[in-house]
Write a structure and sequence with these properties.
Elements lengths: L11 H22 L8 H10 L4 H17 L4 H5 L4 E8 L3 H14 L4 E6 L2 E5 L3 H9 L12 E8 L5 E8 L1 H28 L7 H36 L34
Length: 278
């Protein structure tokens, strides 16, 4: 029986990379075969992760997060036609959790114009606020504040070590997806009705009914893809700001003086009135 050497052992980061890559390959294989893989219970996942050196608490938390995301963005015809409406970005940064949370809240409030709705233990929920915020979202055509057009934004800052934390940002753009679906449906039905009325006189126009229904949907699908891309870039910018941290104030140059030592002042020259020669 062959003995396990150090070369056969993997570090935790390598285990994570191998498991992620294996899941991707398995997903592609089942996608090519157009079959559904068998379901796996949570207990089996816990045992497999335990064998790989992953604690049970982390596994169960990951299962909970995946399940909660599916519940928040279920598979429906909106998601089938345009795509998912929840954008997520996670990054581990080298700053204390409390300092990072306070700084991100200030950025969301001052630079993005969002309103705080809920806050507890490093987690906060933000939205556009009252009617004035909704009007700002509707009238803002500059595209400089994409987070203002979301339904809500969730911030979660958790401490990993003493000076390290994990920032998790989730943006919900289901409101924009619903608007795109509505506009596409209205335009599609309008164009299809025109072709149908023309087809009453000439049956050749009836061939354009289905393309008239599908064309607006294709256009709004591209528009929603662009919106999703802008939202992901905005989340990355928010994480970049968290990683950079709040601006530091420049301390005055003390020279060779110790902290608390007062700099000696030069004596002020005495003023002597000039005497005029008589």
């Amino acid at each position: 029986m062959a003995k396990n050497t150090d070369k056969d052992r993997l570090k935790p980061a390598e285990v994570e990379a191998v498991l992620r890559r294996s899941a991707q390959l398995n997903s592609r294989r089942w996608g090519r075969l157009r079959q559904e893989s068998t379901s796996v219970s949570t207990e089996v996942v816990v045992k497999v992760a335990e064998a790989a050196g992953i604690p049970e608490a982390d596994v169960r938390r990951a299962v909970f997060e995946v399940s909660s995301e599916k519940a928040a963005d279920p598979m429906n015809y909106h998601r089938t036609l345009l795509g998912p409406a929840r954008m997520r970005a996670v990054r581990e940064i080298e700053h204390p959790a409390r300092e990072t949370s306070e700084y991100l809240e200030e950025v969301m409030r001052s630079e993005e114009g969002m309103k705080l709705r809920y806050k507890s233990n490093g987690a906060s929920l933000w939205d556009t606020g009252d009617t004035v915020g909704l009007m700002r979202r509707a009238l803002d055509m500059s595209g400089e504040k994409p987070l203002l057009k979301t339904r809500s934004v969730e911030l979660l800052v958790e401490e990993v070590e003493h000076d390290r934390c994990t920032v998790d940002v989730i943006a919900d753009i289901s409101n924009q997806r619903a608007e795109y679906i509505s506009f596409a449906g209205i335009l599609g039905v309008t164009f299809a009705l025109l072709f149908f009325l023309a087809g009453v006189q000439n049956g050749l126009f009836l061939l354009g009914v289905i393309p008239a229904l599908a064309a607006p949907l294709g256009g709004f699908r591209l528009a929603f893809m662009k919106t999703s891309g802008d939202m992901r870039r905005s989340l990355d910018w928010l994480l970049d700001a968290a990683e950079k941290g709040p601006p530091r104030e420049d301390t005055p140059n003390r020279g060779n003086r110790r902290p608390g030592q007062i700099q000696s002042l030069k004596p002020i020259p005495r003023f002597v009135a000039e005497q005029k020669d008589e």
